[in-house]
Design a protein that fits this description.
The structure holds 2 protein chains of 2 kinds. Chain A contains 7 helices and no strands. Chain A has 2 domains: 127 residues, no CATH class; 45 residues. Helix content of chain A is 80%, strand content 0%. The radius of gyration of chain A is 19 Å and the shape is globular. Chain A is an all-alpha fold. In chain A, helix 2 crosses helix 4 and helix 6 runs antiparallel to helix 7. Chain B has a domain of 103 residues. Chain B contains 7 helices and no strands. The longest helix of chain B has 43 residues. Classes of the chains: A mainly alpha, B mainly alpha.
């Protein structure tokens, strides 16, 4: 990977600090915007790889993007820097802010503002998913499985792991089959 | 209730749950809720308040949520221990999984796995968005906000902060 410019640990810390602070509702939107669109640290394929790996793992998946992107660019130190950027400062600031807010959780205006923000965040998350799909070179053949995964969660309300364990082997098998046929 | 043994039990329970929280921490929230309420550490009301506030604050929401719980149970050490129990085990797993994936970067099977997984990932992200939309879209104007936000992110290079900010103002004005 000699062609890859060396990213400093500070840059990783700062980038994921930004992702974390901006990410109310959907961290994946900002992770994609910053690591793929702006910094060009990752290609769309690499980003999709990372999100795919994180879906299979437990825990807060957006932190997983920080760990994997950091690991890809700078190994263990990079993973630690990106994760620290994501958690450390936002965690402390958020904790103090929370202490203040607990006296005002009934405030009508705050709750209404939150509804607006999450409505917009939902739309942006949908758009990020659509963009990942569009970035797929064989998006037409990707469509049925994207639709099945979507339906499994959004319509069927099945657990994520169940959806993955049923669809992933099928989808991989079909990719293998069509890949062999078209070669 | 500054009791070291409660702190140990809480941290151990959180570490266990975060290690099996496939699909994100929200999937184990009901279990955490039952655990802290039956132990008498939090009331129902406190739990929902913690959740609402941790969602409102930018940053790692679920880690914050657990640190509020830890703080209630055992003060500052509780907050720190709970936060670590929530992110450390999954982070170790993410790192090892990525290392494994990267080691086989040139293996032919990885192309197939990638081709198979990429559509699922896109579908799951879209589903995640619609699940949030389902909870947030309490009215037709809110649905319009979701649709507009999606369109703007798809087709323009507008900074999403403007979109989030205006949506927040619409909401605060009571328009949604």
């Amino acid at each position: 990977m000699a062609s890859q410019p060396r990213v400093t640990l500070g840059a990783l810390f700062y980038a994921f600090l930004k992702v974390s602070l901006l990410a109310s509702g959907g961290g994946i939107v900002w992770a994609h915007r910053i690591t793929v669109d702006q910094r060009r640290w990752l290609s769309d394929t690499e980003f999709t790889d990372i999100v795919g790996i994180c879906q299979f793992m437990p825990g807060p998946n957006v932190v997983g993007i920080a760990v994997c992107a950091g690991a890809k660019l700078r190994g263990l130190a990079g993973a630690a820097a990106a994760t620290a950027g994501f958690i450390l400062i936002p965690g402390i600031v958020g904790f103090l802010l929370g202490e203040l807010l607990f006296r005002h959780t009934d405030a009508r205006m705050l709750q209404n503002a939150l509804i607006g923000i999450s409505a917009a965040a939902a739309g942006m998350m949908i758009a990020t998913g659509l963009r990942l799909l569009r970035a797929n070179r064989r998006w037409l053949s990707a469509l049925p499985f994207a639709a099945l995964a979507f339906a499994g969660i959004a319509v069927g309300h099945f657990p994520l792991l169940a959806v993955l364990l049923v669809l992933a082997p099928l989808s991989i098998a079909i990719a293998a089959f069509t890949g062999v046929r078209f070669r | 209730m500054n009791d070291p043994s409660s702190l140990g039990r809480l941290a151990a329970h959180l570490a266990l749950l975060s290690s099996i929280s496939f699909g994100g921490v929200p999937t184990v929230l009901p279990d955490i809720h039952a655990f802290v309420v039956t132990n008498g550490w939090l009331t129902d009301r406190e739990f929902t308040d913690f959740l609402a506030v941790s969602q409102a604050i930018p940053g790692p929401n679920m880690i914050l949520m657990m640190s509020f719980i830890g703080w209630k149970v055992a003060g500052l050490p509780g907050a720190i221990a709970s936060a670590c129990a929530t992110f450390a085990p999954p982070c170790a797993m993410y790192f090892m999984a990525y290392r494994l994936w990267d080691r086989f970067r040139d293996a032919p099977w990885q192309k197939l796995v990638r081709a198979g997984l990429a559509p699922l990932t896109a579908g799951l992200v879209i589903a995640g968005g619609t699940v949030v939309a389902h909870a947030a879209d309490v009215s037709w104007p809110a649905v319009a906000v979701t649709a507009t936000a999606a369109g703007l992110l798809m087709f323009t290079r507008l900074n999403p902060l403007w979109v989030l900010g205006s949506a927040g103002i619409f909401g605060a004005l009571g328009l949604l």
